[in-house]
Amino acid sequence: MLIRIALVITALAGVASAHSAGAQFDQNPMTQAGNGGIVFDGAPRFSGHTCNVCHVDAPGLIHIRLESDHPELFTDGWKPKMQYHLRVVLVDEWAGVANNANGDNCGLRDVMPFKPCNDNGFALEIDDAVGNSLGGFTQVLANKCDATGTAVYILGDKSAVVHSGGVNGGTSWDVCWTAPDAGAGPVTAYLAAVDGNGGKGTLAIPTDVVGDDVAAGAVPIAEAGADVNTQTGGCNAGGDAGVGLALALLGLGVRFRRRKKLVALALVLAAASGCVHVRPRQRETLAKRNMKFGPDPAEDELDLHMQESREGSSGGYGSSGGGCGCN
User: What is the DSSP string of 23-78?
Assistant: First the structure.
């Protein structure tokens, strides 16, 4: 019998988009209505954007739970080259539960009359302190790590994993993660999930972004046996700066329960104020163009994609010739 440590990730207000098919996350956003490799899981490399970018006005009633077959991953840290069987679980689903009765006879599957599906989704990546994806993801088949599985979709660059799509009522997704080489330091697992309500329930509008629920959060994971670099002293933004640094801290809610399968770890996120010293090796990141207050072309393109997804419109952005950008 395994002991379960539960940490529940609450819904966060943020700004990303989830699609019904996993492969769409790799597709071109302009020509194929895809995401261009953006998974909107709240990671810094996506400017912290989550599924709230498109799934707006989510009530925040759902939670996410991250589980592992090795619970010491969350307490003692990751071990070099060790393979961990992880599971992302959508907790307190409600938006599309009524569509579970349709079974597999739903959605765009040549079923008439059209019946809506209960389409849910998730995104997960594990990054180092400067936002680089670490380790490698592998499919799970028959409850074992197996590259031939198709239960989830792993991005082409192996940086993240998302739902594969086409599973009515799915609320949990399994994936294997192989830890990196020793010395990589602490990592963070960024997660996001969408509780879909099935869309308008018509063949013309089988899915939409209205009425869905969203949750997102981050799980810090230390490197096993590594020294913890504790920062001491204070910091401030005095003088003419007039700006304080806000640090999102994790409030841990722990409860124990028996379970035969995976050992779970979940977290409750809380917001707090604070500041942090920047290590010399992290200053390179602060000097990058996308860390400046002024937007760069890549950020503009991301904003445009979000706006078009929300408003069902395109064009008139960044050039003359019509629409709202005619001047």
Answer: GGGTS-TTTSS--TT---SS-GGGTT--GGGTSTT-----EEEEEES-THHHHT-B
What is the per-residue pLDDT for 207?
Answer: 65
Helix ranges restricted to H, 185-264: none
Q: What is the torsional sign of CA 45, 67, 69, 165?
A: negative
Contact 169, 192 (CB under 8 A): no
Whether the pLDDT of residue 7 is over 70: the answer is: no
The conformation of residue 133, written as its DSSP 8-state character, comes to: B
What are the residue boundaries of the structural domains of the chain, listed by start? Answer: 2-227+243-301
Give CATH for domain 2-227+243-301: 2.60.40.4060
Cα–Cα dist 215/208, whole Å: 17
Whether the model clears a pTM of 0.85, i.e. scores above it, the answer is no
Could you say which DSSP state residue 279 is in? P
Closest by Cα among 97, 35, 36 to 61: 97
Q: How confident is the model at residue 278 (pLDDT cuts 50, 70, 90)?
A: low
| pLDDT exceeds 80 at position 268 | no
pLDDT at 11 exceeding the cut of 60? no
pLDDT value for 308: 74
